[in-house]
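User: I'll paste a sequence; please echo it back and then give the predicted structure.

Assistant: Echoing your sequence first, then the prediction.
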Amino acid sequence: MTFSTTAKEILVTRVRATKDALEVKFNDGRSVSLPIDWFPRLLHGSLKERNTWQLNGDGFGIHWPLLDEDLSAASLLAGRRSRESAQSFQRWLQVRRRNQRLRVRSRRKAVA
């Protein structure tokens, strides 16, 4: 006896980040709106950084290159918050702040 199952892959089709929420639409018509504070890197990003994203693997996940953040379609659909450790997030935040200070300094030198 042969069984055939066709599992449709659930893929991200659209992403929108607001001040308060991450809104994600999927290829099967479902959508989720999750609190932005569930995702600390997105929370600390500007609206431009939050809305600069790329689909990973044709929609299996989302990558935010300016924030070095990756979230899977499956975890978003399940309503899971970020599982990044506090230590990892603090290291990322320190590097981010240092890079922001360096950019400000180089702009000042360029203007002077």
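The chain has a mean pLDDT of 90. The domain at 12-83 is CATH 3.30.2020.40 (NE0471 N-terminal domain-like).
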